[in-house]
Amino acid sequence: MKKRFGIFAAVVIAAALTLSGCAKSDSATSDSAASCAKADLATVTAGKLTIATGEPAYYPWIIDDKPETGNGFEGAVAYAVAKQLGFTNDEVVWVRTTFDSAVTPGEKNFDFNLQQFSITPERAGAVDFSSPYYTAPQAIVSFKGSKIDGKTSLADLKGAKLGAAVGTTSLDAIESQIGSKPQVFNDNAAGVSALKNKQIDGLVVDLPTAFYLSGVEVPNGIIVGQLPSTGSGDQFGLLLTKGSKLTSCVTGAVDAITADGTLAAITDKWLATDAGAPVLKP
After folding, report:
1. What CATH code is carried by the domain that includes residue 167?
2. Distance, CA of 222 to CA of 231 (rounded, Å)
3. Using one digit for the tens of pLDDT, what is the confidence trace for 116-153?
4. Does the pLDDT of residue 231 top 70, yes or no?
5. Could you write out the three-class secondary structure of the chain?
6. Are 108 and 192 contained in the same domain?
């Protein structure tokens, strides 16, 4: 874990992070009169807070695939929100889900889920989101000597084979910003395998994941660059069942840990800053 954190921390990225703590999610419940006292929360299991993450969950979001330790950015955020809602660590229960199953409509086996879910209008039609707890730019991971090594503009990427995980905003970015037809993978792990086998020239992911993949997972890995900002950035929110009675309270908890500096401290601890991933020219 220390080796991985050292690699990630050596490349600093907080300048690329924009925390949007005060804005409410469009899907947040407007019933401000609802009680957020622990005893009044309609959780999946009475007296417990059930939180979901991916299987597996990756660094730096969750360390060593053990969310129950609270180590990693999202692990720490989860327990900070739980505390704000009145739950102790031993009252938190973790479950695992796939990314796709979480963003589809229907009842869930969790109270909220966090595995880098970008808030989009399409998803907000199927699930609820809390206020954003993180804003991430997109970046392209490749390897030394690849077709796109050293490229500095979006125009330079024309004709390159780029991939991204299904259902992600990274996939949308390839089409909308680069104008290429992407190769689609079931998840980032499959995309990394393709990159290692040189079946693609680059994999598009959020910037923190790009630092990890280039420093740990991909041999001779590099970050070609960040995609230019499109304005609001890629905001991550806690995901809940559509119409959940918990949405307003969970949103309030995210707003509270933003306002009191807890979220900033978590960000400082688990995500660092760096100017070594240049923004690609339009």
Report:
1. 3.40.190.10
2. 25
3. 998 999 999 999 999 999 988 899 999 999 999 999 99
4. no
5. CHHHHHHHHHCCEHHHCCCCCCCCCCCCCCCCCCCCCHHHCCCCCCCCEEEEECCCCCCCCCHHHCHHHCCCHHHHHHHHHHHHHCCCHHHEEEEECCHHHHHCCCCCCCCEECCCCECCHHHHCCEEEEEEEEEECEEEEEECCCCCCCCCECHHHCCCCEEEECCCHHHHHHHHHHCCCCEEECCHHHHHHHHHCCCCCEEEEEHHHHHHHHHHHCCCEEEEEECCCCCCCEEEEEEEECCCCCHHHHHHHHHHHHHCCHHHHHHHHHCCECCCCCECEC
6. no
Identify whether 93 is part of a domain: yes
Burial code of 40-58, b = ≥16 C-beta within 10 A, e = fewer?
Answer: ebebbeeeebbbbbbeebb
CA distances from 145 to 100, 151, 201 (A): 34, 11, 10
If you compute the radius of gyration of the chain from its CA atoms, what whole number of angstroms results?
19
pLDDT the model gives residue 5: 38
> How many structural domains are present in the chain?
2
Do 102 and 238 belong to one domain? yes
Residue 22 lies in a domain: yes
* Rounded Cα gap, residues 155 and 59, in angstroms: 32
Token readout for 146 is 């690849």
Round to whole Å and give the CA distance between 245 and 35: 10
Quote the CA–CA distance of 122 and 141 in Å, as a whole number. 27
Residues 174 and 238 in one domain: no
Amino acid at 209: T
CA angle centred on 76, ends 166 and 231, rounded to 5°? 50
